[in-house]
Amino acid sequence: MHVDLARVTALRREIERHNHAYYVLDAPLIPDAEYDRLFRELQALETEYPELITPDSPTQRVGGKLLGGFAPVRHAVPMLSIRTETDTEASGARAFDARVRKELGLDERDPPVEYAAELKFDGLAINLRYEHGVLVQAATRGDGETGEDVTQNIRTMRAIPLRLNAESPPTALEVRGEVFMRRDDFERYNAKQREAGKPALVNPRNGAAGSIRQLDPAIAAQRPLSFFAYGLGEVQGWNVPATHSGTLDALAALGVPVCAERITGLGAAALIAFHDDIAARRDQLPFDIDGVVYKVNRLDLQRELGFLTREPRWAVAHKFPAQEQLTTVLGIEVQVGRTGAMTPVARLAPVFVGGVTVTNATLHNQDEIDRKDVRVGDTVIVRRAGDVIPEVVAAVLDRRPDPAPPRFNILQRYPVCPECGSHVVRLEGESAARCTGGLYCPAQRKQALLHFAGRRAMDIEGLGDKLVDQLVERGLVHTPADVYGLSLEKLAGLDRMAEKSAANLLAAIETSKTTTLARFIFALGIRNIGETTAKDLAKHFGTLDRLLAATEADLLAVRDVGPIVAQSIIQFFAEPHNLEVVNTLRAAGVHWPELTGLVQSTGVLAGKTLVLTGALPAMTREAAKEMIEAAGGKVAGSVSKKTDYVVAGEEAGSKLTKAQELGVAILDEAGLRTLLASNNNNEQHALDF
Ligand code: IVH
To answer: Ligand 1 site: residues with CB under 6 angstroms?
Structure first.
């Protein structure tokens, strides 16, 4: 008894504090679900010990305190709330149907009751009063009896008609509904706020409620708000339709926004079907909802059922699991992604949210951590909507431990990558901190290998994602250099790797050793270096060693290379782990014709036209073409008298015959290599002198 009194007092104080934060300051400290829990706990204690109830207990009033700045409005018809249930869909709808039937005195032989089912919008309840078709007043719900006059703010909303669309409008018509914010509007608004360095809204619900309770209508006017009607208040001089669904249709005809996601149907089965349909599509809806609402459709039956205390017997709300909850941050770690991006992840005290237990949530990147100012030890709002990964929405500053924990900084906490020990950097203009050990880092291994083997990189046919997965998972390959150490024996145990395919793969690996500098640079997977930049770099520097020795100023002299690309290159080659892999690749026999930056017109093949035909034994056609071009030559598609050489591989056909007829010089792969080698020698000389 003693303990309960203390708890009741504490709960009342806590709830009042949140009421003030929510209703007066427009700055909620906790998610609604948390508030509801406190409220329900107090209600439960008061039900158990009614003698503890006092008139000033927060349970004894329906809504919140009135905000000083708005004039009070006494509702002609009280704005009540609906009974809310969180049981499972089937039992909830059946229990509601059973209660309704019992109250109406129906038994099994009577036909099913017709219901209307609609969405439970998540915003702020508003009463719009139209007199002779003109909007004269808009009021919040307040405590249900008396609300606040927010007409000026509501008038700024384009979604709400200032005049009803009717030739002879009702004398008085009060439309009740919800003001809310669509998700896309919320995102757009927040993006704009952030850009302007202004505070963002925590969620659409607070965005809507906060806007309407802005004392300055000019501020309210900037918030993108929507409205849906769900019922009526006082009515004079209007023929109210016989059903709820008919009423909403009539309101729609008057130009009042009504949500299309609603049905009418017979018995509990219709309600269950609606519930399941909406629950499945909840995350695809353009706005947040917190459940569905079931209503007896016939208004005469609604009147017959009446009210129980402050809740109608003819309606019930079915809440979906809350998508936001409170929990504490136990730690902040990073996850290294496939491209080296380091994503900060909050480790959380387990919490049930959005239908699952969540133990960690993404913090996205350093900018987001800074913006939300999330620290280890903080109480935070976590959100999990549908299949979207859980995220930390905001820190509850009010509950920050004292003394305050330090701010979290990724680069300070993780100067080196937790996966591979390479340096972590954050490039200018990028939101992500990144591991620079691209060729070496286990987190980036698969991605690096796939890129390395790609058609436009080293072009190793057969080395696709399934094989890369196996090679990495079995520890056969750690870095791209290990690819050149593969053997028939090592490949033997792999899935779908018959001797023939293993031999083909090894041949493709062997062939890839002969490449071009541009391909090799591209294959390294340096951040921000695409195929074109790789070609520009190869052309400019001519040899890998010159590229390795390049300073930032040298790099900036290359066509289209700006500071970010230059930094990416410098950081990549500054990482000893990466250099080690590059050197191992060269030692394994990966090679290319090194050019010394001499212009192509002086190469050994300058002015020469070559035609390739048949399969070359140890060189792809693409590579051969690039090497010929690098030596100043041109590759043509057909043989003519102007052709200088035909390079004929295995199973060469008509082109070879034609070359023989025209007396064009014919080379095999070895001959081509000799020719290209003399190009290298020449150029080495050119460099030597
Ligand atoms: S009907 C007498 N229908 O939920 C019944 N309310 O507790 C009047 N709400 O704050 C309410 N969507 O703002 C009704 N489709 C809907 C609703 C809805 C959201 C809100 C309403 C009120 C609370 C009811």
So the answer is: 80-82, 118-121, 125, 178, 230-231, 293, 312, 315
